[in-house]
Amino acid sequence: MDPAVSSHAEVLVPAPLAVLLDNQRAFLGFLEKRVGDRALAEDILQDAFIKLVNRPDQARGDEDGVVRWFYRTLRNAAIDRFRRQNTASKALEAFAREVESRETPETEMEAQICACVARLASTLKPEYADALQAIEIDGTPVKVFAERHGLSANNAGVRVHRAREALKKRVAESCGTCADHGCRDCNCRSQD
């Protein structure tokens, strides 16, 4: 068989890629030892092969040189994956701390905000006001709301999304910049 033809497929494969494909099991073992998870190792190896297929000019040199280069590539890919996971974990922890430390509005302030928003919601198209009341206020699941109104779940979801957007626009029109700051020091009632 021509060395440029892989034993894994009946298509022409550049010689360096054929060498790498022949070493696939060794690469997978190398990654699995480092990441401790076969599925993750398979994902990293697949991503590395995809990058190589998209940019075959990266793999140059003799067989040994290409294999050494690919091991370095895999090691770097595993390190990058762990860095991304670590960054995502840190962001999630920061968000959790923010949620825990977030102040809840005082009962009186919350009632005032809710009254303002409820008043504005009542000015929306009836089907939007009904959707917001049922889903946001009463806690009805979208699927149940859809069944009750003869809608598909997708259509009900779109209706709620549009209702939220319409309410958001009404709040901005009515409350102006106070809505951007959480309706603190609300003066909306004076604009009635």
SSE layout and pairing:
Blueprint: H1 15-22, H2 24-35, H3 38-54, H4 63-101, H5 107-121, H6 126-137, H7 142-148, H8 153-175
Helix pairs in contact: 2-3, 2-4, 3-4, 6-8, 7-8
Secondary structure: helix percent: 55-70%
Summed over residues and divided by their number, the pLDDT gives a mean of: 76
Number of strands: 0
Radius of gyration: 29 Å
Give the CA-CA distance, first to last residue.
85 Å
CATH topology of the largest domain: Rna Polymerase Sigma Factor, Chain: A
Q: Work out the strand percent.
A: under 5%
Which CATH architecture of the largest domain is right? Orthogonal Bundle
Listing every helix as H and every strand as E from the N terminus to the C terminus, the arrangement reads HHHHHHHH
Derived structural class: mainly alpha
Q: Which outline best applies?
A: elongated
Per CATH, the class of the largest domain reads Mainly Alpha
Helix count equals: 8
Give start-end ranges of low-pLDDT stretches: 1-13
Number of domains: 2
* Main sheet attributes: strand count, strand direction, barrel closure: none
Structure description:
The protein has 192 residues and is mostly helical. The chain has two domains: 15-101, Rna Polymerase Sigma Factor, Chain: A; 107-191, Arc Repressor Mutant, subunit A, CATH 1.10.10. It is built from eight helices and no strands. The chain has helices at residues 15-22, 24-35, 38-54, 63-101, 107-121, 126-137, 142-148, 153-175. α2 (24-35) packs parallel to α4 and α3 packs across α4 (63-101). The longest helix has 39 residues, at 63-101. Mean pLDDT is 76; it is low at 1-13.
